[in-house]
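sry for the spam today, last one i promise. struct tokens for design, 532 residues
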């Protein structure tokens, strides 16, 4: 072939790639990193054939098997791959987009609820084998004088709407006993493949199902004793998945949680105190195991819903400022959540949001906006236009930004002002913003030099607990993205976090040490792949 052509081709590729977000990291990679990178590429190429290729074993429930296919059907297969073993060992940096009420495995949440005799359950209809899947359980802790002695949700005498103690409802459950009860509850707390890919296969439809999973879970997680268990479990499981710091979006639109006495009487400041306690306890636990460096703590992004009126929002904004004054180390941002397409756009809230900025100056606090924006398939719709308002309001990062790639100037601003995008690939796919990973806009962002932080969004509902699954889906669906790119993304999650400068420097240094260990491990475990 023409040498000159090849040189020109190389130059063009290099020029194009030099704009990428990981260009510097690739240029500065050590020899060991390059070796590990090559190993991971070979493992991926091999599994592209053996696991995801046309001759690979079929995956039940899926007509088409390919790298980056629908997560809910691919999950069990992913767990068996070598590539997943590698990704699982990776230090992930920070988890920056995580809805707090969607962070603990459904079975673990149910197990926690079963510990408390105040917990009761009911259904709005009499359960039959035919309506079981469509009928949702409702949970609630009751004050002791309202505890009931009904035994079963399924006997003939059950009156729909009556509360039954959770443990007896489980023991006496028909349709297969306690295990069937657990499966029924877990199904109500999670999204399954047939919902996402068949019966509710559009953004609007799947959001309806998604909403009910929150409603069911909230009956348990809003009970303060369960919330306290929940936080510790969330931190522990995140650390086990290689996450060293978390900014969680806390659902503060409820003014009270339900206390141990079954009354709605636990105000927001108690939620924060419990959050602090949980961080401290989990830190101590890990320090005792000699793993103190694996967890740097967690902060809270104050969230209310995009259904609030402007007057209501004013209350929340003042509440947010009061919490920031009392817990300056904890509150790190403000956001509005909920399905962007049908709910109120940011422009609707401009007056209260501007007042919030002014009020912060008056009282001398700083609470950055960290807005969800552009989580939509729309082009010029109000949800898509949220990106303009998020930028004008000075958002520190963008949550989702699924439609960001339609906006060249906004992408440029993201580069100039170093506004990172919290990208949630698996969430986007399950909620039907993208059919699969190869259709996801993430590579467009990275190729154009926009910094991203990969996030799991609502892993309790989606089954992508930890960050390994999201990193996996990204790695497997791109030829350009390799191990070093993942390192860069995981570092960026720390760089664009709300950690103060000193903590950030420490976090990045610890990440570097863990990264070196990962590289050694990959080389010692998989170097056979280099010979083939
Ligand atoms: O991806 C998302 N985009 C916007 N809102 C979300 C997303 N995931 C969850 N929530 C919203 O946050 C609340 C739980 O904290 C839920 O009510 C849900 O509507």
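last one done:
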């Amino acid at each position: 072939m023409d040498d000159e052509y090849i040189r020109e081709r190389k130059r063009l590729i290099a020029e194009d790639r030099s704009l990428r977000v990981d260009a510097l990291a690739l240029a500065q990679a050590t020899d060991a990193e390059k070796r590990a990178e090559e190993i991971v590429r070979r493992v991926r190429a091999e599994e592209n054939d053996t696991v995801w290729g046309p001759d690979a074993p079929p995956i039940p429930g899926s007509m088409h098997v390919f790298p980056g296919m629908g997560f809910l059907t691919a999950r069990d297969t992913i767990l068996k791959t070598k590539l997943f073993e590698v990704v699982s060992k990776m230090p992930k940096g920070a988890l920056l987009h995580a809805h707090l009420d969607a962070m603990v495995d459904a079975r673990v949440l149910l197990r926690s609820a079963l510990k408390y005799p105040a917990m009761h359950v009911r259904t709005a209809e009499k359960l039959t084998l035919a309506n079981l899947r469509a009928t949702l359980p409702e949970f609630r802790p009751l004050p002791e004088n309202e505890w009931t002695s009904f035994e079963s949700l399924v006997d003939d005498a059950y009156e729909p709407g009556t509360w039954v103690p959770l443990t007896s409802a489980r023991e006496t459950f028909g349709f297969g006993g306690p295990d069937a009860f657990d499966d029924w509850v877990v199904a109500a707390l999670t999204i399954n493949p047939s919902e996402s890919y068949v019966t509710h296969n559009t953004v609007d439809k799947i959001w309806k199902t998604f909403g009910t999973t929150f409603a069911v879970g909230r009956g348990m997680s809003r009970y303060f004793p369960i919330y306290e268990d929940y936080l510790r479990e969330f931190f522990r499981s995140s650390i086990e998945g290689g996450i060293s710091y978390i900014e969680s979006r806390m659902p503060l639109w409820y003014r009270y949680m339900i206390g141990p006495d079954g009354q709605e009487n636990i105000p927001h400041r108690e939620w924060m105190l419990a959050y602090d306690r949980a961080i401290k306890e989990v830190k101590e636990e890990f320090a005792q195991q000699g793993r103190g460096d694996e967890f740097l703590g967690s902060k809270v992004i104050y969230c209310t819903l995009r259904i609030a009126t402007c007057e209501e929002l004013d209350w929340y904004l003042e509440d947010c400022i009061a919490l920031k004054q009392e817990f300056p180390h904890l509150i790190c941002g403000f956001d509005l959540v909920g399905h962007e397409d049908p709910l109120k756009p940011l422009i609707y809230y401009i007056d209260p949001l501007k007042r919030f900025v002014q009020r912060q100056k008056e009282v001398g606090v700083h609470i950055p906006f960290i807005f969800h924006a552009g989580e939509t398939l729309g082009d010029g719709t109000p949800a898509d236009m949220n990106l303009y308002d998020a930028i004008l309001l000075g958002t520190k990062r963008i949550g989702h930004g699924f439609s960001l790639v339609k906006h060249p100037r906004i992408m440029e601003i993201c580069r100039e002002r170093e506004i990172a995008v919290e990208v949630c690939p698996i969430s986007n796919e399950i909620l039907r913003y993208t059919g699969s990973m190869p259709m996801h806009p993430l590579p467009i962002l990275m190729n154009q030099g926009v910094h991203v932080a990969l996030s799991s969004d609502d892993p309790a509902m989606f089954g992508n607990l930890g960050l390994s699954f999201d990193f996996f889906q990204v790695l497997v669906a791109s030829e350009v993205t390799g191990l070093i790119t993942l390192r860069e993304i995981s570092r960026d999650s720390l760089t664009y976090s709300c950690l103060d400068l000193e903590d950030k420097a420490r976090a990045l240094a610890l990440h570097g040490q863990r990264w070196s260990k990962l590289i050694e491990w990959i080389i010692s475990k998989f170097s056979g792949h280099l010979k083939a």
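Residues 93-106+217-469 form a domain with the TIM Barrel fold (CATH 3.20.20.140). ok im logging off now
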